[in-house]
Amino acid sequence: MNKVILTVLLIWMAKFSFAGDTITVVHYNLLFYGFYTSFCTEQNNNVDDKDGYLKTIIDHTRPDIFTVNELGRGEHNADRILDNVLNVDEPGKFSRAGYTNEANSNLLNMLFYNSSLFELYNESVITSIVRDINLYTLYYKDPELENGADTTFLSFVVAHFKAGSSSQDQQTRTAEAQAVMTYISQNPVRGNILFAADYNMNSSYEQAYQVITYHPNESIRFIDPIDKPGTWWNNPNMAPYHTQSPRTGEHPCFVTGGLDDRYDQILVTREIMEGTRGLEFIEGSYETIGQDGNRFNQSVIDPPNYSEPEEVIQALYDMSDHLPVKLKMVTREIIDTDVHTPSSGPELRIVNPVKDKLEITLNDVSSGNALIEIVSTMGKKLLSREITLHSSANHFSVDVSGLPSGVYIIRIRVGNETLASKKVMIT
Fold it and tell me: Which fold has domain 19-331?
């Protein structure tokens, strides 16, 4: 077999051999769910009707994790979604996070999760500048946990940023974004993180979005899984990604005007894009439900929309003035607990791909004894070599000619601590 083909095949096998459960995530702004105002009333936004619309949408999208904005104040509204929507057909399948309202807002966030796959590990309020911005951490109930498998943690930032396009509104959103990123940088929240939000931003150029996606600490930056930066508002080129508003004409409760904003997004960390912490984004799985790309400044039902079943399209029209967004991830073997070196830690450099000699440069470390290890993507140690580190630059050459072509992990360890780690491809 041609060596190049063999290398590609081995890489493919390393990436896909250990796939497990497929995890579906849906984020949705529910539009005043269970909260009535002078303009969103029991007549034009009835919660009983909304339960029916939402159940149609949930039955179609089948999320394992469901995050929401604009849940009306009061725990009863969160419980209502469990009882009337999520657990109707399979009682007890879904659980929810705790209820918070530190900002004393009428509109809140919530996370619901498939309790057969996940357990709630921790939750906190990052800030409450306008509304609470919540952080929820789940862990995946890996059937191999009892046999010593690494625990896969999954954290969600769920937020509903300040609306409006004035300079003050933008400054408030920047403050909200900075609060999130500061919290993540100062607390042990790493790895698999999703940022599900109604961002209320017209473009990726807004400072708040830049704070999130180009934070100085590269290890905590968030990534748009479909990589669609630019001006979203009123841009026909962005029509396939617009999430607000599914209606035209006039309505006292719903925002109208047709679809021309990409307010609702799910951003993810690099670890999810690369699959290094037990969960990996499935390419092509990110979508705006009900969006066929032919809706620019038009409603979700006119012209006729065949992207989803007719009853789902109608439910999207009747449920909210936003469309839900969805992505999928697949569970994978955790190949290393520190595949990426934090920006404040040691600098590990290697030259990829490698043929016979692996050249390693390591800077910003304390002097002392350490180990160079090469492990397979299954975590099996294949090579180990003792080294002496110096506080100045360190350079090592490792013979890897005896290893088959494929993808491996190179890591530097001192005792039980991994100082630095990277993927390496041996050809």
Answer: Deoxyribonuclease I; Chain A (3.60.10)
